[in-house]
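Exercise 3.2. Students should predict the tertiary structure of the chain below and write it as structure tokens, then compare their answer with the key that follows.

Predict this chain's 3D structure.
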Amino acid sequence: MAEVRSKPSPSYAIPATIITLGLYRLWYARTLYALNPTTLRVESGILRRQEEEVPLPRITSVTMKLSPLPGASSVIVGTGSGERTIVVGRLNRRDARTWAAALNDARAAAS
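Answer key:
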């Protein structure tokens, strides 16, 4: 499996940047979603960096939330055993479908 990497949808960035007086653009530049053959990794944050990494065998569910608005779709990844979920968010519909398919394929290959 090839590594899948993406950032939030750029179509959401313009209005969010205007509303937040440019702070969203900083967050956008510092957010990265990455899926490699062994883990899902989410990096985000401006002042307080948050890096989450989940081994693929621990992923129990993958849910897509598709929105007709650009940049408002997301993929919710459940890790089971009462742990918190990971959200790959601010995606366009196509990217959300790509992420959900890649996560399901990687989860099936890891088990």
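Discussion points: The first strand starts at residue 4 and ends at 6. The chain has one domain: 4-110.
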